[in-house]
Design goal:
Layout (H helix, E strand, L loop, with lengths): L1 H43 L6 H14 L1 H16 L10 H17 L9 H8 L2 H4 L2 H43 L11 H28 L1 H11 L14 H26 L7 E2 L2 E2 H10 L21 H7 L17 H6 L26 H5 L1 H11 L22
Antiparallel strand pairs: 1-2
Helix pairs in contact: 1-7, 2-3, 3-7, 4-11, 7-10, 8-9, 8-10, 9-15
Bound molecules: zinc ion (ZN) (2 copies).
Length: 406
């Protein structure tokens, strides 16, 4: 018995070492790929947020050579880790806005406003039970590792699908409908429409990915890493397996590419976005509360708005492992897709529920080994062994709740 245990431990150590080497290789390869991919992606994303800054960085790098290019990539990656990119949810301004809303939620929950205290407010926003929980500690470790990989995936995969799809769609329209002799000039209305449509396209891509990740068991094994969180902190939003991110970005890239192909056909190039801090104004508004989605702070938008916009409370319900909440609220910015697909769940009041995976399965995902390697083992084991019809949480098939109205 002891021999078996020691053998199993040795196997695990060897596999862990192999995994670390593989991750280092993936990191180095993606590093090299990104160094080449950045200019191509930028060239294809005219008017994209941050483009001007990146273009000037690129020119500087061309002047100073490859060494500087590597330094630029490092700088870019480090910025994404330390809350300095307005394109990312953990930007310092979004953290301040989320803290302000959380403070208001605390104040509104008090019996009398004069009961407000700074200590009470800090305990409400940063409870030890959440931020020191073992699951939160796993999130922090995971953030450091995926925080480096994810921006590369965004560049290489999303650019890699959006660009060819965009050029093929615009070429197909040219050959089917015929070339436009006079291209319209995008005015304010076209720019506003494109700003809204782009966010809708990104969100539709996210919804499709998310729906598939819950419905297809093979994909669910990778998406489980995100759902294994037993408490929610803003860092949990970055607890995504690289395969999960890869699928997500590929689908989003395809849909955004389709939209850009149509825009390129019509206007010669997509209209400039309406931006705040180089970020789409719509995403900027959404990001003001995005950090509350993965938190214990309950913020619902009410019955009517929750049919269109996905509130932080709706995403918290998405993380619930209670049967009544299973496989609901897949949308990120918009809940409209859920409404149309019958997967919308609108809470009528603040609800109490357990987070994580059913049958305590989340306990298997407290280590980085569990988060990175276990999904591969489970996914491929599922492919090779026949399994009974189960829902995505591992129970017998349960039809999810549909719209819950007041
Ligand atoms: Zn999910
Ligand atoms: Zn989530």
């Amino acid at each position: 018995m002891a021999l078996e245990k020691s053998h199993a431990r040795n196997q695990k150590t060897t596999a862990l070492a192999t995994f670390r080497i593989a991750m280092s290789l993936v990191f180095l390869l993606s590093f090299g790929a990104s160094a080449h991919a950045v200019p191509a992606t930028q060239a294809a994303e005219r008017g994209a947020p941050g483009q001007e800054r990146l273009s000037s960085a690129k020119r500087l790098c061309e002047d100073l050579g490859a060494g500087c290019r590597v330094a630029k990539i490092m700088y870019w990656q480090v910025r994404s880790l330390f809350f300095a990119k307005p394109e990312q949810g953990l930007y310092w301004l979004y953290i301040i806005s989320a803290l302000s809303v959380a403070m208001m939620v605390y104040a509104l929950g008090l019996p009398r406003l004069r009961d407000f205290s700074v200590t009470g407010c800090l305990h409400f926003i940063f409870p030890n039970a959440v931020y020191r929980h073992a699951s939160a500690v796993t999130d922090y470790k995971y953030y450091i590792t995926t925080g480096f990989v994810d921006p590369f995936l965004t560049l290489v995969i999303a650019g890699g699908t959006a660009i060819p799809v965009s050029s093929r769609v615009s070429a197909a329209l040219n050959s089917i409908v015929g070339p436009l002799t006079l291209h319209a000039r995008p005015g304010w209305i076209a720019r506003l429409a494109y700003t809204v449509l782009l966010v809708a396209a990104i969100d539709l891509g996210y919804f499709i990915f998310h729906y598939l990740a819950h419905r297809i068991e093979f994909l669910w094994e990778f998406h489980k890493v995100h759902h294994a969180a037993e408490v929610l902190t803003p860092i949990t939003g970055y607890r995504n397996h690289p395969i999960d991110s890869l699928l997500q970005l590929s689908i989003i890239g395809g849909i955004v590419g389709f939209l850009n192909g149509v825009m390129t056909y019509w206007y010669q190039r997509p209209p400039d976005l309406i931006t705040v801090l180089n970020t789409s104004v719509v995403l900027f508004a959404y990001n003001l509360t995005t950090n509350l989605r993965h938190s214990h702070v309950w913020l619902s938008y009410g019955n009517i708005a929750s049919h269109i916009l996905s509130s932080p409370a709706q995403h918290q319900i998405h993380h619930s492992c209670e049967v009544r909440h299973l496989d609901t609220n897949f949308g990120r910015v918009l809940s409209l897709w859920d409404w149309m697909s019958g997967t919308l769940y609108i809470p009528t009041e603040k609800e109490e529920f357990r987070l994580g995976l059913r049958h305590e399965e989340h306990r298997e995902y407290v280590s980085l080994w569990g988060c990175y390697v276990l999904p591969f083992i489970k996914a491929f084991r599922g492919l090779t062994k026949g399994r009974p019809a189960l829902d995505s949480k591992g129970d017998k098939v349960v039809i999810p709740q549909t719209v819950k109205r007041i």
